[in-house]
Amino acid sequence: MIPVIPKKYLGQHFLNDESVAERIVHSISTNPKNILEIGPGMGILTKYLIQIENIDFRAIEIDTESIVYLQQKYPKLQTVSGDFLKLNLSDYYKNDVVIIGNFPFNISSQILFKVLENKYIVTELVGMFQKEVAERIASKPGKKMYSILSVLLQAFYDIEYLFTVDEHLFTPPPQVKSGVIRMIRNPEKSLRCDEVLFKSVVKTAFNQRRKTLRNSLKSFSFRDEFNESSIFSKRPEQLAVEEFEEICAAVVNNNNNK
Q1: Closest to 251 in 3D by CA, of 178, 201, 210
Q2: Contact 119/153 with Cβ under 8 angstroms?
Q3: Same domain, 180 and 217
């Protein structure tokens, strides 16, 4: 079979190490009913995913050349032709889908926000990202890499950095190392405050991350007693998800008592 030519405009870097591919697939820790692979390329992960029994397995691919290749190599594979970022997941799944893939670096953050939008459908994600992005997602409070994305995702997912993948294991080799993470949906069904407010507080705080919260969150109103809380002497990277929820609840409490 004629191999697929990696396309720069799609951010394609094809993994060519079988042991890494197998390790990624075996990192799925739940027993899913459904698995969706994003951007299978030449199918190095697909080869192992298609062997999993008693699941509904599909692969979504935007590259028509890859789709033709995969259909020839795996005739029984269910392929979805299109852009994952434009896919309405609820058209295919009602719940319990695991997402997996070697994700293009140029849209990796968009993929994560899409997963977050579908958090009640996506129960687990195992994926390969640019190493710095993977570390940021999994970073804990108090670390320099802890960010907006860390907080928003960790509000709903337990995230673990699994392992690093070197550049030379891809065709063509990317300029940076890759990192594989696993995200598993946590038991939290909802936040202690409105999600829109939560995102606003987190983004406002991190947009001025060098300032203490007392200074960065001046645009929000709090009751006098909460203004004295020690939480306001911290910077955003020092706060756990629960503390951001506490701040949001305080904003709501103040508004309700006006």
Answers
A1: 201
A2: no
A3: no
Q: Residues with Cβ < 8 Å from 176, sequence gap 6 or more?
A: 130, 131, 132, 167
Same domain, 42 and 123: yes
pLDDT in tens, 161-210: 999 999 999 999 999 999 999 999 998 777 888 899 999 999 999 999 88
Cα–Cα dist 34/101, whole Å: 14
Distance, in Å, from the CA atom of 60 to the CA atom of 45, rounded to the nearest integer, reads 13
The number of domains in the chain is 2
How far apart CA 150 and CA 159 sit, in angstroms, is 9
Residue 237: burial class (beta carbons within 10 Å; 0-12, 13-18, 19+):
buried
Has residue 217 got a pLDDT over 70? yes
Contact in structure between 79 and 67 (CB atoms under 8 Å): yes
